[in-house]
Amino acid sequence: MIIDADEDLPARWISIRNACLPSILDIPEEISETGLIHVTKNGIKFGIWIMPDNQMRGMLESFLAYMIRDESETIWQYAQEVAQEAKTKGASFKDSYLDKAKIYTWLAWQEEPVRQLHQAIKYEILNPQHPKVQTFLTWFKNLYNL
């Protein structure tokens, strides 16, 4: 299970934990920064990752911002400022979608603007090897025995 933390990670975890408790009696009270992988008595693996990093508020787009290449940092900083300024000037996106506005603004300014997030990785605009992404990749590989 991969789910967004959105605005309140502790509340999100409590909700997930409560839903899992009938089946996973030993589910921890807090999610680890490395995610959760639980193996049932009959060998079934069940994993939980809360975007972006099991530690803070955010969503998939917050996680993808970790993959912005270092050489793009200046324009990324500016895209964040512009998205925030657009909100103050009446842009109608929800406050909770600010991270989405930031990443899509930045993506629109690339040599080849992309409309879908997976294309940013496919076209190597984002760097999936960035160190901030490695904990997620390790969790994913361990969950699926890759």
Would you mind describing this structure in some detail?
- The chain is mainly alpha-helical and 146 residues long.
- The chain folds into 2 domains: 2-55 and 136-143, no CATH class; 68-127.
- 42% of the residues lie in helices and 10% in strands.
- It contains 6 helices and 3 strands, in the order E-H-E-E-H-H-H-H-H.
- Strands 1-3-2 form a 3-stranded mixed beta sheet, with helices on both faces.
- A hairpin with a 5-residue loop joins strand 2 and strand 3 (45-51).
- Helix 3 (73-88) crosses helix 4.
- It is globular.
- The two termini are 17 Å apart.
Topology (elements, then pairings):
Layout: E1 2-4, H1 9-20, E2 36-39, E3 45-51, H2 60-65, H3 73-88, H4 98-108, H5 117-122, H6 134-143
Parallel strand pairs: 1-3
Antiparallel strand pairs: 2-3
Helix pairs in contact: 3-4
The whole-number mean of residue pLDDT values reads 93
- Main-sheet strand order equals 1-3-2
The stretches of 5 or more residues where confidence is low (pLDDT under 50) are none
Radius of gyration: 17 Å
Number of domains: 2
Helical amount: 40-55%
Characterize the overall form: globular
Instruction: Summarize the main sheet.
Output: 3 strands, mixed
C-alpha end-to-end distance = 17 Å
DSSP strand tally: 3
Strand content: 5-15%
Number of helical regions: 6
Q: How would you classify the helix and strand content by structural class?
A: mainly alpha
